[in-house]
Amino acid sequence: MGMCLPCLGGAADDVVVTPDPETRRRQLAEAAEKRQKETAYRGVKNPEAVERKRKKQEEVEKRAMTTSVSGGGGLKWQVG
């Protein structure tokens, strides 16, 4: 029985203090964002290149949509 008392005496020093709710919320948000990035780029060797290609493709599509809406640069029908 005397063997257990020294173990219990240092137990108060080993207690982990939980951070305040705001810090905890921030840490959880950062961890979730990191997990999402990891799953989005799983198997991709160069994620920055993939991101650049995606943005470039979006730019091309956006430009195509604006030119088709304004009617410029397309084929014109001739009747006659």
From TrEMBL:
Identify this protein by name. Answer: Small VCP interacting protein
Q: Which PANTHER family match?
A: SMALL VCP/P97-INTERACTING PROTEIN, SMALL VCP_P97-INTERACTING PROTEIN
Comp. bias intervals (Gly residues): 70-80
- One Gene Ontology cellular component annotation held by this UniProt entry: endoplasmic reticulum membrane
* Gene Ontology biological-process entries: negative regulation of ERAD pathway; negative regulation of retrograde protein transport, ER to cytosol; negative regulation of VCP-NPL4-UFD1 AAA ATPase complex assembly; positive regulation of autophagy
Keywords assigned: Lipoprotein, Myristate, Palmitate
Specify one Pfam family: SVIP
Q: Where is the composition biased (Basic and acidic residues)?
A: 26-40, 48-64
Region (Disordered), start-end ranges: 26-80
UniProt KW Lipoprotein keyword: yes
